[in-house]
Amino acid sequence: MASNEFVIPERYEDLTPAPQVDNKTLNRMALRSYWLQSSFNYETMQSGGWLFAMIPGLEKVHTNKHDLSVSMYHNLDFINTHPFLVTFVMGIVLSLEQNKMDIQTIRAVRISAASPLGGIGDALFWLTLVPITAGITSNMAIDGNLAAPIIFLVIFNICQAALRFGLMKWSYSVGTSAIDSLTANMQAFTRAASILGCFVVGCLTVTMGTTQINLMIPNGTTRGLAATTIVVSNEEAENFADAAIDTETAEPGTIGMTDMDGAALTASDADGNAVETGIVDLGNGMSQVTYGTVTETDVNYSVASTLDSVLPKLIPLMLVLLLYFLFAKKNFTPLKGILVLFLLGILGAGPFGLWPNIW
Amino acid sequence: MDVSIVQIVLVFLVTFVAAIDQFDFLESLYQPIVTGPIIGAILGDVNTGLVVGGTYQLMTIGNMPIGGAQPPNAVIGGIMAAVFACTLDMDVNLAVATAIPFALLGQYGVTLFFTLRAPLLEFFRGCAEKADTKGITKWTVISEVILGLIFAAIVTLFFIGGQTFGQTVVDAIPEWLNNGLTAAGNMMKFVGFAILLKVMMSRDMWAFFLMGFGLAVIGANITTIGSSAILLVLTFIGFGIAFWDFQQQTELKGAALDGGDFSDGI
Lengths: 359, 266
Known about the structure:
The structure holds two protein chains of two kinds. Chain A is of the alpha+beta class. Chain A has three domains: 2-207, no CATH class; 216-301, no CATH class; 313-353, no CATH class. Chain A is 54% helix and 13% strand. In chain A, strands 1, 2, 5 and 6 form a four-stranded antiparallel sheet that branches. Chain B is mainly alpha-helical. Chain B folds into two domains: 5-200, no CATH class; 201-261. Helices cover 77% and strands 0% of the residues of chain B. Chain B is built from eleven helices and no strands. The radius of gyration of chain B is 24 Å and the shape is flat. At the A-B interface, helix 2, helix 3, helix 5, helix 6 and helix 8 of A face helix 2, helix 3, helix 5, helix 6 and helix 7 of B.
C-alpha cells in the first residue's frame, strides 16, 4: 500500500518550540472534538475524528509543511478514549507538539493518556449523569410532561460543553503534569462515582420497577347470608315463616328465615350491616319480611400482596439480581439477557393458553 | 393511518440527524426521550410519542456504548417504537417490545458498518501525507453523510413498509403473546440496571445498592413527594454518601502520607 511508504522520522525538522496557542484556536479544537467519532471504525477507532479535531492546533504549531504532514500522519494512530473527555488528551498532546517533543514520546503519551479515560468517562456520563437525568426526565415524560426532553437536553449538554471546553484549556495549560494530577485521586474518584451509581441503580429498581406477579389463585369459597327485605300480604308472609335452613350445608340461593332450631338468622344487607331475619306485621294487612339468601363467593389468594408483605418490589429486585448474575458470572451478553426476559415474559403470559397469565 | 409525503420526508430527516448524533455532535439528540416526542409530533400525537420515548429511555439507561460495546441501536429502536405506538395505536410497552428486533438489526448493522468503514482511513492517510487539512474535513463530512443516509433510508423503509405490514402483524398477535411481550417490554429496563451494576460492582458496593433500594422503598410510600421528585431527593442523599466517602478516601491517603514522612518531622 502506498501509505506504508510514508516514513515518520524520529523528530520534527523544525525543533523551535512554537508560541503559545491562543484561546480562539483552543475553542475551535473543542468545538471540532464534538465530531471525534465521525469516522469511527474497528481498525483505528476514533483516529479520523481525532485528527479532524487536532488540525486547528497542529496548523498553528507546525509552520513547516513537512512537519505538519508527519504530525497529521502519526495523529491517525489507533485511539479510543471517551468522547466527552477527549479534549483533556488533546490539550496534553498539543502542548507536546508545540514543544516539538520526540514523535515517539507524543505517540506514547497520547495512547496512555487516552485509554484510561474510557473508564472514568463511562463512570461520569453513562453511569452517573445519564441514568440520573434520564431516569428523572423519563418519569416526567411517562407522566406526559413535555418539558422532560428539554430538561434532559439542557442538563446533559451544559455538562458536556463545560467538560469539553474546560478540559481543553486546563489540560493544555497544565501540560503533561495534568495526567498526574488527575490520576492521583483517580481511585477515590472512581470509587465515589461507583457508590453514587450503585445507590441510584438501587433507587431506580424501586421507582421504575413495576413488574409484579398479579396472579390470583382460587382458594375455595366463603359462605354468607344476604338479607332481603320485602313487603307482602300477611297470607304470603306465612309462607316464609317456616323456612328453616342449615346455613352450613344449604345450596347457594336457598332462602331461609330461621336456623334448624327455629332461632332468627343474622344476615348482612347490601351495605354490609348485620340484620336479623323476621316478620313484622305492619297492621294494614301487609307484613314486612326480612329473609336471608345463602351466598357462596370465590376467595382468591393474591400472590402480589403476599410478595409485598415479604418485601415490596421483590420481583424487580430478583430480576435485577438474576440478570446481574447472568452478566457477571455467566458472561451473558446484554442480548442474551434481553432474550431471557422475552422468554420469561411470554412463558409467564401462558403461551397458547396453556396456563393463566401471571403478569 | 395514512401517511403523507411530508411525514415520510420528516421522518427521513429526523433519522438522518439522529443517526449522526448517536456518535457525534451533541450525543443526546438521538436519545429516545428526545426522538419520541419529535416523531410523535410528525405523526400528530406528541403525547404518545413522549410517553413511548420515556419508556424506551428507561430501558436504554445503562444499555449504552460502554467500553466500545454496541448496545441495541437506540436510534432505530426509539424511532420505531414511537412509530408503532402513534400509527398502530399500540400499547406503549408493547410498542417498545415490538421495536426491539429492529433495534437489534440496527446493532448488527452498526457493527458491520464500522468494519466496512476501515478502508476510508486510507483517504485520511492520503490527505495527511500531503498535509491537506481541507481534505480531512471533506472526508469527515462524507463519512458522516454516508452513515446518516444509510440509517435514514432503512428507517424510512421500515416506516412505509411497517404501515400495512405492521397492522397485519398486530392483528395476528394472540392475546397471550400480547401480554407476554408487554410484560417483557416492561422488564427490559432491568437489563440496563444489571449491566450498570456489572460495570460498577465490587464487594463493597452491594451495601450501597441495597441502601438505595431500601431508601427508595420508603420514599416511594411518601405520597407527598412526587414520583419525579423522589428520585432527585434520593440522588442528593446518594451524592452526600459518595462525597463523604471520597473525602474519607483522599484524606486517609493524605494522612497516611503525612504520618509516614518522618524525615520532615521533629
